[in-house]
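Reminder to self: tokens first, then the designed residues, so the page reads top to bottom the way the pipeline ran.
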């Protein structure tokens, strides 16, 4: 029987999200990386693996080695990755494999960019719109919100969920972000505020969409646990059913369930075993669709669980207690990584005011890239 070295999330760190005037992608990445190493109790010389996420404001062909040079690292393995919003989780999955195989002992996973201060609004829109099909979607002027709005329209038609249902999740994410000093958006909002906000792409309004931020996040995946807690990466899975919206066959089966099934089988767990969720939420519809496809709510009933209080910090299944992409902010790859950093802090008991009375023991993470195109699931457990 093949045995593998266990892989642990040993440390994590990140910057505040918002505007960082004068700080480039490498500056932000370095700040997050140093925090992660400090929390892990490691020096830069202990890092033998490095994985970097792409940065639209720094499209360097060799970003991992560029960062290694800037951060004074000499890794035995280095790699850069591009998988849209799923990049962070995919890098953690790859880091896990590097550790389990014995190739590396301490892998630094880092991403960040100054997307808010270092890129114009029009440039950002144009860059993100390229996830669309170059022949059939991009020439028609579609944007990422438009792609998600089209998907939302069909999902809402088939399930009967409403804009009010979606708005409840925007409110929850804002409530969580208010207690996080590093969150981009911390002003209280109501369901009425969400429904009355500026229309972006029907049925999505401004507060159904995540903001564009500057920021960075980093984690250390190691063969040894950290001093605070042994947080093991127990299972991981991926699924890739399509790239473009026009190639999506069924909004009810985007690939999330398949990725989760692989991760859960590997971990020997079921959805009911988890007591914390970190679920990608680029738009409110993203969060609802994923919660339901992943099995954390029946179809059309995620909002009912929300209203019941299940996803609140004090509920049975706390969700994105940092505020998620919708309120903590979104700066590309690091935006999705923030979900894992928050899970690590919650499971390590260092989340401060956001810490629930009961420290989470089992966390499920899911990220998607593109238009629900690439899916990565991670199962984390706090071990004795």
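Designed residues (384 positions):
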């Amino acid at each position: 029987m093949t045995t593998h070295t266990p892989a642990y999330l040993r440390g994590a760190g990140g910057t505040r999200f918002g505007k960082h005037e004068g700080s480039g992608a490498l500056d932000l990445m370095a700040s997050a990386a140093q925090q992660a190493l400090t929390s892990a109790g490691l020096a830069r010389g202990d890092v033998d693996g490095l994985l970097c996420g792409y940065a639209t404001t720094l499209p360097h062909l060799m970003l991992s080695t560029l960062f290694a040079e800037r951060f004074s690292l000499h890794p035995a393995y280095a790699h850069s990755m591009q998988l849209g919003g799923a990049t962070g989780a995919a890098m953690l999955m790859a880091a896990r494999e590097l550790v389990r195989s014995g190739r590396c002992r301490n892998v630094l996973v880092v991403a960040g960019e100054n997307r808010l201060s270092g890129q114009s609004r029009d440039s950002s829109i144009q860059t993100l719109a390229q996830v669309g099909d170059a022949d059939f979607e991009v020439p028609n002027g579609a944007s990422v919100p438009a792609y998600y709005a089209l998907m939302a329209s069909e999902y809402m038609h088939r399930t009967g969920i409403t804009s009010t249902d979606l708005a409840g999740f925007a409110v929850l994410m804002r409530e969580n972000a208010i207690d996080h000093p590093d969150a981009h958006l911390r002003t209280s909002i109501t369901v009425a505020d969400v429904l009355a906000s500026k229309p972006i792409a029907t049925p999505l309004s401004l507060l159904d969409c995540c903001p564009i931020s500057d920021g960075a996040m980093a984690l250390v995946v190691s063969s040894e646990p950290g001093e605070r807690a042994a947080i093991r990466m127990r299972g991981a899975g991926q699924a890739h059913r399509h790239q473009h919206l026009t190639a999506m066959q069924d909004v009810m089966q985007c690939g999330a369930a398949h990725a989760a099934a692989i991760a859960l089988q590997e971990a020997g767990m079921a959805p009911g075993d988890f007591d914390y969720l970190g679920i990608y939420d680029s738009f409110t519809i993203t969060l609802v669709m994923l919660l339901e496809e992943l099995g954390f709510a029946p179809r059309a009933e995620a909002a009912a669980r929300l209203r019941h209080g299940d996803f609140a910090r004090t509920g049975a299944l706390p969700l994105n207690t940092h505020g998620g992409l919708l309120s903590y902010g979104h700066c590309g790859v690091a935006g999705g990584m923030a979900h894992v950093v928050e899970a690590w802090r919650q499971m390590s008991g260092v989340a401060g005011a956001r810490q629930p009375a009961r420290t989470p023991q089992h966390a499920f993470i899911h990220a998607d890239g593109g238009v629900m195109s690439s899916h990565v699931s991670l199962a984390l457990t706090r071990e004795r």
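DSSP finds twelve helices and eleven strands in the chain.
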